[in-house]
């Protein structure tokens, strides 16, 4: 009989639990009324602030070389840009479309991961990644033209996920996951704060306001309901799954974990139907495309086991 501890130490179970929690991020991004940039800024700084009060995190940071600190800080910037574009996609389209674009990550990763980590290029992984494309096309094809900017921003977000996943895979093997999370969240938050300072000088018009903030509200404390959603987002959907996913990534390839993350659109769509009543924006194509995505998710571990 398998003990509970052994079950919870299974990296596939860990990564799928993370993906389930991440499924709520798109929903919370739709519920929070803040523009994407201050939303991500608050999210990252909240997580970093909690982690930096833990003595173990400081010990882990002290053990890192300057080169590794700079490397993880760079990854934190990529994480910040990913979240900025992800929530921008939600604001410009909807939660279901933004989450579905994340299924493109394996397509990007099968090329990026061998370059970054030095692993062998596997044509089979490219084939499995390409199999996701018809599902994405069917899912996204039924969206109104007004959502096309959100789709474009979502694809860019998927590319950024592939980048930071590959670099994390290369760097995280012998490092404390909480310390890595702290430095990445802090670096990403500080980057967005600097970016925000530059944007204060730029007049924002039209759809840019869905992603970038109005200067007057940039550093304002969020209203009560937004603040509650941000706390759930920061700790339940960021701190816990981000640290746990880094732990699982020690025993999974970045590509394998990204295929598991393809379940995120499925969770997000189901939650959007239940919570946001988004089924009015969906048609049968969404469900057909989702079925293709789920099939590819389960094909990969079966192929790997063989």
Major sheet: none
- SS summary, helix count: 14
Please tell me the total number of domains.
1
Q: What are the low-pLDDT stretches, counting only 5+ consecutive residues below 50?
A: none
The secondary structure category is: mainly alpha
SSE string = HHHHHHHHHHHHHH
Mean pLDDT: 80
What amount of the residues lies in strands? Answer: under 5%
Radius of gyration: 19 Å
Distance between the termini: 23 Å
How many β-strands, per DSSP?
A: 0
Helix coverage percent of residues?
Answer: over 70%
Net shape: globular
Topology:
Layout: H1 4-8, H2 11-31, H3 36-51, H4 55-62, H5 66-92, H6 95-101, H7 105-117, H8 123-141, H9 148-171, H10 177-199, H11 224-249, H12 254-261, H13 263-276, H14 284-305
Q: What are its keywords?
A:
306 residues, mainly alpha, 14 helices
Describe this protein's structure:
With 306 residues, the chain is an all-alpha fold. The chain has one domain (14-305). The protein is 76% helix and 0% strand. It is built from 14 helices and no strands. Helix 5 (66-92) crosses helix 6. The longest helix has 27 residues, at 66-92. It is globular and about 50 Å long. It starts with a helix and ends with a helix.
